[in-house]
Design brief:
This protein has 186 residues and is α/β, with parallel strands linked by helices. Helix 1 (29-39) runs parallel beside helix 3. It starts with a strand and ends with a strand. The strands form 2 sheets. The chain has a 5-stranded parallel sheet. Strands 1-7 form a two-stranded antiparallel ribbon. 28% of the residues lie in helices and 24% in strands.
Length: 186
C-alpha cells in the first residue's frame, strides 16, 4: 500500500469494520487496516459502528434490518491494535460518518486534523459518503483503496474505486495535491 505522507496532522477514519460485515470475500482487508494502524503515524484514530433504529431512514430505505437497536462490535484484532492509541469510537446511523453521535467535523478541527484517510466498508456506500463530506468540509481526503471493500459484490467496489480514483480521492490517484506529496510503502 502506498500512503500519502504529508506535513499535515492526519486521522484514520475506520468505517463499520464490524463482525456483522466481515465475510470470506472481504476478510483480506483486516490485515491491511492493521498495517495502517501499526505503521502510519496518525494523530488520531476514529472508528464508527453502525447503529440502526427501527424508524431510521437507513432502515426504511436502506433495508438495513440487522442489529436494530444494537451496536455491532469492532473487529477484535483492530480493537486490540488501537489500544493505547489516541482512539475515539462512535456509533453512526447514517451513511456519512460526519453525522449522528459524534460531531466529527468539530472533533477533527479541535485536534487540528487537516487530512483524513478513510477505510473499510462499504466503499460504494458509507466510505464514499464520508469521503465526499470530508472533502466538502475542506479536509484533504484519501480513501485507502487496499483497505476498503464491499460486503457482497466485487463490481460495486471496483466501480467505486474507479470513480474515487478519477476524482483524486484515493491513495492511488495520479494527482494528490498541488504540493509535492511523498508516499510511504507499507
Amino acid at each position: 500500500m502506498k500512503i500519502p505522507m504529508t506535513w499535515r496532522k492526519k486521522a484514520l477514519i475506520i468505517v463499520d469494520v464490524t463482525e456483522s460485515f466481515i465475510n470470506d470475500r472481504n476478510r483480506y482487508i483486516i490485515p491491511n487496516i492493521n498495517k495502517l494502524i501499526n505503521n502510519v503515524d496518525y494523530d488520531l484514530f476514529i472508528s464508527f459502528l453502525p447503529y440502526n433504529e427501527e424508524s431510521s431512514l437507513r432502515t426504511e430505505q436502506g433495508w438495513w434490518f440487522d442489529l436494530i437497536g444494537e451496536i455491532d462490535k469492532l473487529d477484535s484484532s483492530i480493537e486490540e491494535n488501537l489500544k493505547g492509541k489516541n482512539h475515539i469510537q462512535s456509533k453512526k446511523i447514517t451513511k456519512s460518518s460526519f453525522k449522528w453521535d459524534l460531531n466529527l467535523e468539530k472533533t477533527l478541527r479541535d485536534k487540528n486534523i487537516k487530512e483524513v484517510h478513510i477505510v473499510w466498508f462499504e466503499s460504494n456506500d458509507c466510505v464514499m459518503a464520508t469521503v465526499f463530506e470530508a472533502f466538502d468540509l475542506w479536509f484533504y481526503s484519501f480513501i485507502i483503496e487496499e483497505a476498503c471493500e464491499t460486503w457482497k459484490t466485487e463490481l460495486n467496489h471496483k466501480n467505486a474505486m474507479l470513480i474515487l480514483n478519477y476524482i483524486n480521492l484515493t491513495n492511488n490517484s495520479k494527482f494528490v495535491g498541488y504540493e509535492k506529496t511523498d508516499f510511504k510503502e507499507i
